[in-house]
Amino acid sequence: MVKNNYKKILIWGAKSKARIIQKMLENMGERASFLYDSYLDYLEFETNAQFSNSKKDLIGSRKDWIIGKDQKDLSFPTFN
Questions:
Q1: Which residues lie below 8 Å from residue 4, measured CB to CB, with a gap of 6+?
Q2: 30-66: per-residue pLDDT in tens?
Q3: Which residue(s) pair with 52 in the sheet?
């Protein structure tokens, strides 16, 4: 079994800012594991992260997530 070294990162909100944050995380060598937005029924962009709009899914896995990161550690994405 291959162990992945990625942290479990939750992005709260799944619209355009989540898409930008995902790109920023990729530039840092990380990736989002879970997107949560109670106001959306589906995502408007492609991602490998799990998406949910259910509080039950969010609460059930809360102990596994890293929530947020210091702004000084983030860099702006470059779009190709």
A1: none
A2: 888 889 899 999 999 888 888 989 888 877 666 665 5
A3: 36
Amino acid identity, position 31: R
Instruction: List the domain boundaries for the chain.
Output: 9-68
- Report the alpha-carbon distance of residue 57 to residue 79 in Å, rounded: 32
Cβ-proximal residues to 15 (8 Å cutoff; 6+ apart), any chain: 37, 40, 44
Using CA atoms, how far residue 78 sits from 8, 10, 16, 22, 40, in Å, is 23, 22, 15, 12, 27
Question: Of 9, 27, 20, which Cα lies nearest the Cα of 65?
Answer: 9
